[in-house]
Design goal:
The protein is built from eleven helices and eleven strands. It is an alpha/beta fold. Strand 7 and strand 8 form a beta hairpin.
């Protein structure tokens, strides 16, 4: 049996890293030969998680085809979010919790997608179905991924399944998930040490919306004014990436993790669909989005509808 690589999306967040580790552990227990890798370095939140559980970071790759013929994807399916040579390898498995878009394969594959708050929640269910025990350290990592993706179970993407799984994983890991979760989320909001490019690249995904390439970055913070004190520099960094990468529109969603409100910074064109999506006029390149915390559920769907209108 040939070895396969397992990885999450580019600009990996905690779930992209942890889901790859978790699925690799499960698949290897079931007889496969896999290695979890990453498509980028871990962000500060993920670094906090890995350090807390004394877990090594994943090896970073830029291409898969020089190493393997076949790969497994976690936490994404859209090719522009995946490894650069995704077209040159066979995708044998996908485990995800996002929309399915621009994805097709030449051969049948294992595809598991559920509308849950986190990919690691889906993988937890796969452990249970296959009667494979989750080790305490891995339980802590998976717990961290769910906390990250659901903002400590406050995001509208959170389901009762996510809540139940967090409680079970917390028992396995021996963790007070509320106290640990808040500490973990705050660890990812140290913005002062990062450049504007680092801020907009740390958690960003590209979407093809009716012929336009839209890049959506999310910055978690406990102080929105701290982010927008740097608005001019953030706009300059986004404009530079638009020019370098061919993005039409760069959207920066700054989210206050304490009160679950966001501000959207809009750089590029077209802007009319953005105003349509959220029913507001852009002022000073910004939109106030109270109650919006989820890119997956509250940002991309209305944008998709507006671009397709």
């Amino acid at each position: 049996m040939s070895k396969e690589l397992i990885f999450g999306h580019q600009s990996p967040d905690t779930d992209a890293i942890v889901a790859a580790k978790a699925l690799s552990y499960l698949e290897n227990k079931l007889g496969a030969d896999t290695e979890a890798v990453a498509l980028g370095e871990p962000n500060e939140e993920t670094q906090f998680v890995l350090k807390h559980f004394d877990e090594p970071a994943l090896r970073v790759i830029t291409k898969a085809a020089p190493e393997v013929d076949s790969v497994m994807l976690v936490d994404h399916n859209e090719p522009q979010q995946s490894v650069s040579d995704i077209a040159d390898v066979t995708v044998s498995h996908v485990v995800d919790h996002h929309r399915i878009n621009n994805f097709n394969t030449a051969q049948p594959l294992f595809y598991r997608a559920e509308p849950l708050g986190c990919c690691s929640t889906v993988i937890y269910k796969m452990f249970a179905e296959n009667e494979v025990e989750i080790p305490a350290k891995l339980a802590g990592l998976m717990l961290s991924a769910i906390i990250s993706d659901t903002l400590l179970l406050k995001s509208p993407t959170t389901t009762q399944t996510d809540v139940d799984v967090v409680k079970d994983l917390a028992k396995i890991a021996g963790i007070d998930y509320q106290a640990y979760g808040l500490e973990m989320l705050k660890a990812g909001t140290n913005l002062a040490s990062k450049s504007e490019k680092e801020l907009i690249d740390a958690d960003a995904k590209s979407f093809e919306l009716n012929g336009s390439t839209v890049r959506v970055a999310q910055i978690n913070t406990v102080d929105l004014p701290e982010v927008f004190d740097r608005q001019a520099a953030l706009e300059a960094a986004a404009k530079a990436e638009n020019a370098a990468e061919g993005y039409d529109l760069f959207l920066i969603l700054a989210t206050n993790i304490l009160d679950s409100n966001s501000e959207l910074l809009v750089v590029g064109e077209p802007t009319a669909p953005v105003e349509t999506a959220f029913g507001k006029k852009i002022e000073n390149n910004r939109l106030s989005l109270p109650g919006v915390v989820s890119r997956k559920k509250q940002v991309v769907p209305p944008l998709t509808d507006a671009f397709n209108a």
